[in-house]
Design brief:
Strand content: under 5%
Structural class: mainly alpha
Distance between the termini: 50 Å
Order of helices and strands: HHHHHHHHHHHHHHHHHHHH
Number of helices: 20
Length: 495
């Protein structure tokens, strides 16, 4: 009896430990713990799917437990935001006076952005003020909840869309909380909009075996991008960015290019997993990455990279500022302001502002030169050159993402341009053959025809279950083979 009691106590202790925030063992989509939980979740969800209220309660409970495991008591911040914005949207819809509607809108924006400011930017502004005044500054013990920026943007878009009468407010708080806490896109997007998501709750798409297998395939592709490619490339980029001094210009350049590909695989991998899980549950979360390194200019890049964010910035910042409706100078100013805010959204630091400014200037320069750029013939040579130029600009700017600060960013640039020697190429390839092969393979895969990807997915969907199991085992083996000792959180979870 004592032995049985001990086993029960140990089991209960382990279950409770799974719900306690633990930075050393984060529950991310690439962790084994999450997939054990999701394997338990999915069949229960399938049983409840046609019982809408019970299904929503079950998914919300799972989502909140997932958030608690990642961020602890910060779940209360999300719940407070959800209650305020749900109520405000109802008041906006009920108000007939334009001033009252605008008052409720600004109340919502102040609450949402104020919460974002307090958690994410307080130390940045206090530190900046201390530098101006010449005082010492000790950072306050403020940690932003994981995914704060993403669910803040989702709830802002909901209230603004109700204000602009693009959608009616949802009368059900459960609907709103389900939308805001939906776990596949809770931590790092996609930034799904309520007007696209909430109707899917009331008019769910049929879930077939084909859609489940297609979603599972997309999840596995995401796992390979994140847990195999991104995490492996990170082993080199982390070493270089932590101490740039010993490395040659070529090695620094490889770190910059490597981080660009790593960031893409990390974030696109997350998006694939989130969208795939949504597909398995019968929800369409859209597309968040569309082969961005195929872009021939910076404008096209932002139509392919982090699509849900770039379109959010376009609709709720750029157009709200006037877009291109008030002349060229105003258009260029709006572009710069939008990208500066986009950079500042990513992080409280001068390096992020610098990154946003670079992209803002890049977009403005492209817009200014479009009349004569259109006259250049579109042939393979021009396409390759413009693609390489765009990729070089993107990689150049992304150095600021990985560097600790703007000083390190500039030091990386100086090292690349003043200490570059192609004599290091053979030594680099010899020292890191797997890293080089992986880089080449991922870039080749990036430029394969889209129809090829669709064909492979159809093949997987239509294969016998034994083949599907074999593919799954291969993916797991790849993860085990290339994974490091600890589970690495997604880069964009910090934003």
């Amino acid at each position: 009896m004592e032995h049985l009691s001990f086993d029960f106590a140990t089991l209960w202790h382990n279950i409770v430990a799974m719900l306690v925030p633990n930075a050393a063992a984060p529950v991310v989509f690439s962790s084994g713990l999450f997939w054990v939980a999701f394997a338990i979740f999915l069949p229960v969800y399938a049983l409840l799917r046609n019982r809408r209220t019970k299904m929503q309660l079950f998914v919300v409970a799972f989502s909140l437990l997932f958030f608690v495991r990642c961020s602890g008591w910060y779940v209360l911040v999300m719940l407070a935001t959800s209650v305020i914005d749900w109520y405000v949207a109802l008041r906006i819809s009920a108000a007939s006076d334009k001033r009252k509607r605008k008052m409720w809108l600004w109340l919502s924006l102040c609450c949402s952005l104020g919460m974002l400011f307090v958690f994410k930017y307080t130390n940045f502004f206090l530190h900046t003020w201390a530098d101006i005044m010449g005082n010492n500054f000790q950072p306050l013990d403020i940690i932003a909840p994981i995914g704060l920026s993403f669910y803040t943007f989702r709830t802002i878009s909901y209230v603004v869309d109700v204000y602009k009468e693009k959608m009616p407010p949802t009368r059900s708080y459960l609907d709103h909380l389900f939308f805001l806490s939906f776990f596949p896109c809770l931590i790092a997007g996609p930034i799904v909009r309520a007007k696209d998501f909430i109707p899917q709750i009331h008019n769910p798409a049929p879930v077939s075996a084909e859609s489940v297998y297609a979603g599972f395939w997309q999840v596995m592709i995401g796992v390979i991008k994140k847990a195999v490619v991104a995490d492996y490339l990170a082993q080199y980029t982390n070493i270089v960015f932590s101490n740039m001094a010993p490395y040659s210009g070529f090695e620094l350049l490889m770190a910059a290019v490597g981080f660009t590909v790593q960031l893409y695989c990390d974030f696109a991998g997350y998006s694939d997993m989130a969208i795939g899980m949504g597909k398995m549950m019968g929800f369409d979360l859209g597309v968040n990455f569309d082969f961005p390194f195929r872009s021939k200019n910076i404008t096209e890049f932002w139509r392919r990279w982090h699509i849900s964010l770039s379109f959010w910035l376009r609709d709720y910042v750029y157009i709200a500022l006037g877009g291109n409706r008030k002349g060229k100078v105003r258009q260029y100013t709006n572009l710069l302001v939008t990208m500066l805010l986009g950079g500042f959204w990513h992080g409280a630091g001068l390096n992020y502002i610098y990154w946003g400014a670079l992209h803002g200037v890049g977009l403005v320069v492209h817009k200014i030169n479009m009349p004569w750029l259109k006259k250049i013939p579109d042939n393979p040579v021009v396409s390759i050159c413009s693609g390489l130029l765009t990729f070089a600009f993107v990689a150049f700017a992304f150095v600021a993402f990985r560097a600790e600060n703007l000083t390190d960013t500039l030091a990386m640039y100086a090292g690349i341009f003043t200490n570059f020697d192609l004599a290091h190429v053979p030594y680099f390839i010899k020292a890191r053959p797997t890293w080089c092969v992986m880089m080449v393979l991922i870039l080749i895969a990036h430029f394969l025809p889209k129809c090829g990807y669709a064909a492979v997915q159809r093949w997987f969907v239509n294969t016998p279950w034994v083949v599907k199991l074999l593919v799954f085992v291969v993916v797991v083996q790849l993860v085990v083979q290339f994974s490091s000792a600890d589970v690495k959180p997604f880069i964009y979870a910090q934003y």
